[in-house]
Write a structure and sequence with these properties.
By secondary structure, the protein is mostly helical. It is built from 5 helices and no strands. Helix 1 runs antiparallel to helix 2 and helix 4 packs across helix 5. The chain is elongated, with a radius of gyration of 47 Å.
């Protein structure tokens, strides 16, 4: 860190402006790097040696150091400030700029930390790779699992189709039975007459039994009252 203990007001103010410009440029790059950081989605075999997450962490530490340095310069500037309203306004303005930079830095850091935690949870939910297997073996194993799943699905489809054919054959058998019964009825019309007379006799017998029961009930009631 640059020694600012013996600097004058103007020197310290100049250092503050230069450092603010440097932080402003780095914050823009820091924010873009945080939004485009996708190294976690790459496999260890395809990820670069220096990925965007590493660059983000390095820039984060650098920005934190620059913000601390700017804070020290603002304190030193307040110590060296000559009296006057304009000077107080200048110090206030520099502190507001530092606060804006700190908020922007924190916002980007929190957003990237949340994204990393979410990706860690997603990685934790997925099954870990089998130990001692190469990536080619893992892909072959996954392909074998998919093939087995396809076989099971095909078997279930075949069972469903067989059940459908069985139901269709049963429906056709019922239709044939209905057709034969209609043919027999049409061929022997006396059967309809016989069935009708049987049903009519059943209704007549039921009616007679009902009348007899009613008459008996009426006579019992008369006897009970006399």
């Amino acid at each position: 860190m640059t020694n600012i203990a013996g600097s004058t007001w103007e020197d310290v103010r100049k250092q503050a402006r230069l450092l603010e410009n440097d932080i402003d440029v780095k914050l823009v790059a820091f924010s873009k790097l945080g939004m485009s950081s996708t190294s976690s989605s790459l496999s260890p075999e395809t990820a670069p040696l220096i990925n965007s997450d590493d660059m983000f962490d390095t820039m984060s530490m650098e920005l934190q150091q620059l913000l601390n340095k700017l804070s020290s310069i603002n304190d030193r500037m307040a110590d060296l400030a000559p009296s006057g309203t304009a000077t107080l306004h200048t110090i206030k303005r520099h502190r507001e700029i530092l606060m804006d930079y700190q908020q922007e830095f924190q916002k980007t850091s929190v957003r990237v930390s949340a994204r990393r935690e979410r990706e860690e949870l997603l990685r934790g939910a997925s099954p870990p790779p089998a130990a001692g297997l190469s990536r080619r073996d893992q892909y072959s194993k996954e392909a074998s699992h998919l093939h087995s799943s396809h076989i099971l699905v095909d078997e279930q489809i075949n069972i469903a189709m067989e059940a459908r054919e069985h139901l269709t054959s049963q429906r056709q058998a019922f239709k044939r039975m209905q057709t034969r019964f209609n043919d027999i009825t049409n061929r022997f019309p006396m059967l309809n007459s016989l069935i009708y007379r049987i049903n009519a006799r059943k209704r007549r017998d039921s009616l007679i039994i009902g009348i007899v029961v009613a008459v008996c009930t009426f006579l019992l009631l008369l006897y009970a009252f006399h």
